[in-house]
């Protein structure tokens, strides 16, 4: 029997599944309509993004004609989340094509020590998993929630702020280490250091002048440091006003709670609470703070948290959990932490494990606070 022999299901039951394996130079396109054994695989290699996307649409239309599919057949496209982000999904959806962005880590793979892996095989596996997912086998892959263009763009405000802060610290640390090689321990944090360096007032340990090459490098470092500090100051002045109205409202509501500052509230509003959650489990899973047990036969191991999702939010929540313990001593979360760590003495590991649980509970409590207006149990608000 021909492997590509087509049966005739009802037209409304036909789904043309398409998967894209994205690379810098070319894309692999795998198509499967469920009526044949093997999917069709094509390659598009146009240099421009728009031309490459149009080539994918042309391949879909050609395959529809070749397989005699109805004109109104349902088309579902999927591709793995990566450096191309979500523009392909938005472009396809604007053309009326259903598209899903897949978490690459959620796709099951063979556990052979040596397994074949090519872009063609990956595209085939993805389109087969897509058809299984459409039949209801949700464990085949996990779909990424696509943010709106505004939500995605707004994240850059806090991410750029964090990057500028990192650059400022890196410049200062680099200058401090360069000076230490000559026994000079002048403070580089104050703005007068650049002037002292320009007037050749910074000396080595024995009072001699700095080598010209090192001095020139330090002057260039000072210029880059001044530029980063200038950009950071300008961003701080306009950061709160640049937030979209919904995110600004969420940020203001979070900042009313003791233990949550304005910067942390803005980061949570932009990085986490831009999306809607159905239950507390989704909140914990989104930030990667959900426990991952390993219970098989006689083996029962606690693997720790999943560490999935947004690592920036996860680190922020752990840091915020420590400040919550300090500024909200009467809250239910703080009392729970104290009861769990009571009697551990100098065992810091027990406290570090417990604080992760506090971070997950805090994320859920803040979600309920924003969603339903329920103030965390025992929490205090900042005075107006």
UniProtKB/TrEMBL annotation:
GO terms for biological process: DNA transposition. It holds the Pfam family Transposase_20. InterPro entries: Transp_IS110-like_N (IPR002525), Transpos_IS110 (IPR047650), Transposase_20 (IPR003346). Residues 254-329 form the Transposase IS116/IS110/IS902 C-terminal domain. Residues 71-180 form the Transposase IS110-like N-terminal domain. It comes from the Bacteria. One of its GO terms (molecular function) is DNA binding. NCBIfam families: transpos_IS110. This is IS110 family transposase. It comes from Paraburkholderia panacisoli.
């Amino acid at each position: 029997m021909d492997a590509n022999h087509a049966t005739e299901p009802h037209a409304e039951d036909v789904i043309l599944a398409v998967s894209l394996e994205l690379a810098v130079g070319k894309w692999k396109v795998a198509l499967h309509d469920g009526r044949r054994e093997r999917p069709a695989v094509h390659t598009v290699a146009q240099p421009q993004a728009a031309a490459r996307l149009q080539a994918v649409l042309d391949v879909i239309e050609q395959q529809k004609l070749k397989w005699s599919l109805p004109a109104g057949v349902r088309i579902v496209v999927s591709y793995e989340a990566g450096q191309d982000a979500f523009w392909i999904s938005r472009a396809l959806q604007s053309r009326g094509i259903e598209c899903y962005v897949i978490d690459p880590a959620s796709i099951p793979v063979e556990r052979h020590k040596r397994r074949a892996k090519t872009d063609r095989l990956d595209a085939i596996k993805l389109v087969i998993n897509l058809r299984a997912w459409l039949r209801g086998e949700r464990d085949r892959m996990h779909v990424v929630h696509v943010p709106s263009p505004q939500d995605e763009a707004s994240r850059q405000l806090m991410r750029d702020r964090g990057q500028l802060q990192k650059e400022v610290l890196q410049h200062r640390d680099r200058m401090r280490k360069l000076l230490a090689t000559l026994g000079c321990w002048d403070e580089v944090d104050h703005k007068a250091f650049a002037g002292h360096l320009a007037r050749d007032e910074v000396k080595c340990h024995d009072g001699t002048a700095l080598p010209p090459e090192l001095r020139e490098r330090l002057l260039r470092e000072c210029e880059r440091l001044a530029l980063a500090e200038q950009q950071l100051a300008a961003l701080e002045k306009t950061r709160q006003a640049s937030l979209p109205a919904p995110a600004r409202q969420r940020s203001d509501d979070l900042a009313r709670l003791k233990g949550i500052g304005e910067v942390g509230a803005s980061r949570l509003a932009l990085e986490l609470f831009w999306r809607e959650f159905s239950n507390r489990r989704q909140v914990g899973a989104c930030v990667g703070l959900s426990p991952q047990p390993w219970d098989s036969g006689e083996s029962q191991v606690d693997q720790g948290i999943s560490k999935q999702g947004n690592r920036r939010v996860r680190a922020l929540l752990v840091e915020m959990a420590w400040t919550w313990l300090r500024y909200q001593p009467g809250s239910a979360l703080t009392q729970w932490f104290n009861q769990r760590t009571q009697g551990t003495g100098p065992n810091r590991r027990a406290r570090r494990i417990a604080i992760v649980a506090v971070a997950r509970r805090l994320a859920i409590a803040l979600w309920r606070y924003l969603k339903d207006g329920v103030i965390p149990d025992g929490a205090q608000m900042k005075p107006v």
